[in-house]
Specification:
2 copies of one chain form a homodimer. Chain A is an alpha/beta fold. Chain A has helices at 13-24, 38-48, 64-74, 89-97, 110-121, 129-138, 145-153, 160-167, 171-185, 190-200; strands at residues 4-9, 29-35, 52-56, 79-84, 102-105, 126-127. Chain A has 2 domains: 4-137, Rossmann fold (3-Layer(aba) Sandwich); 145-200, Winged helix-like DNA-binding domain superfamily/Winged helix DNA-binding domain (Arc Repressor Mutant, subunit A). Chain A has a 6-stranded parallel beta sheet with strand order 2-1-3-4-5-6, with helices on both faces. The structure holds a DNA duplex.
Chain lengths: 203, 203
DNA sequence: CGGGCCTCCTGACAAATGTCATCGCCGGCC
DNA sequence: GGCCGGCGATGACATTTGTCAGGAGGCCCG
């Protein structure tokens, strides 16, 4: 039986290299390509057509989920899985919506990762139980589309005037949206609201 | 010649395990202990007295720099080095002040890391050139001690009243410090000031 | 068709925040 | 000693922000 062809994408060379070395010890897995950024991962995938793509969530250029989305469209036979250090509930949801087959934190062992690659290649799915529990307890975003949009623009601490301009909205409207968003999130001001929404992965 | 005894501290099991496996290939290096958190790293260091401690910057409990500080006091013979994913200029400065012998991003290869461990063990020092350049161009923090402290408390978007209480200061004083800090950083409000200070590693 | 929800807006008011001037106290430095 | 800078505070003021009420239009669904 031919080995599972794996693409490894992570911007941290140390991890990527170490991982490649460890996976090489498994004789049914073959790392055919490595990438250090989102665009590079896409290029590598197109060139090598791996069976499974292991993607880091945070990479320069394009994050793991958007890479997975593109991959799903271009190479439907290539299964994707996400490995991340900071697992936010909302990311998990986005990832699953993008057709990702597995979602695991970097706290898993290499042994476990190898098993996951096999599982995914065999058509299975996997979601870290703890992350799944978080996602369920966090529930769906209570924010409307505009609320989330405005909250995102408020992300870097910009004043209302700037947010209004960038969203092409009136300042009053922006304040209303921010206020209702903060109320829904139980925050006392928009800045903590942004933080909470980020933690839950809703922005 | 006896091998270099290494302590590995990183909260991501995947990386720690992979790293341990790779370093095990070097016959002059011996990983004698692993830790997944700051306190655990300290305990392991006390128990195993390694020659070199490789510390991740962000860990639960206590970050790499504070672990290094304690280690320097308790085990002066144990050389420390920091490996991190997000290298901020200020972190580098703090680390060097804490007696850290080497500071490298996780984008280095395992091979390079092994060399660094040897260098550090031999009494040498190393700082990633790019990080060093950033640190130099970022310059010193223009903030006074209190300004930095108050700015840090403002980090999670707390209202002035809460900051004042936690810093045991008057609300007016807090507002003055935040105002001057924001002015020095060229920010239009404290939230962007916090962001800027974080980017430069001044908080 | 009516009700409910989202999207925008306006206006008004209260609270939080940013800014400035000013003060006293202390410590270091020329 | 005089000067400067940091620390801590107060008070006053303008601005920004949060909150509330309400209105117009649109869309979907029973």
């Amino acid at each position: 039986m031919s080995p599972v062809r794996v693409l490894l994408a992570d911007d941290e060379h140390l991890i990527r290299g170490a991982l490649a070395a460890l996976l090489a010890l498994e004789d049914d897995l073959l790392v055919v390509a490595e990438a250090a950024s989102g665009p590079e991962a896409l290029a590598m995938a197109r060139a090598h057509r791996p069976d499974v793509a292991v993607l880091d969530l945070q990479m320069p250029g394009a994050d793991g989920v958007s890479v997975a989305t593109t991959l799903r469209a271009e190479l439907p036979d290539c299964k994707t899985m996400i490995v991340t250090s900071h697992g936010r509930p909302g990311h998990l949801k986005r990832a699953l919506a993008a057709g990702v087959r597995a979602f695991a934190p970097k706290t898993v062992s290499a042994q476990r990762l190898a098993e996951l690659i096999r599982t995914v290649h065999a058509g299975g799915r996997y979601v870290d139980p703890e992350l799944a529990a978080d996602a369920i307890s966090a529930g769906d975003s209570p924010l409307t589309a505009r609320e989330a949009e405005v909250l995102e623009l408020a992300g870097d601490g910009a004043p209302i005037a700037e947010i209004a301009e960038r969203a092409s909205l009136s300042q009053g409207t922006v304040r209303n949206y921010l206020s209702s968003a903060a109320t829904k999130l139980g925050a006392e001001n928009r800045h903590t609201a942004v933080r909470l929404a980020r933690e839950r992965g809703w922005v």
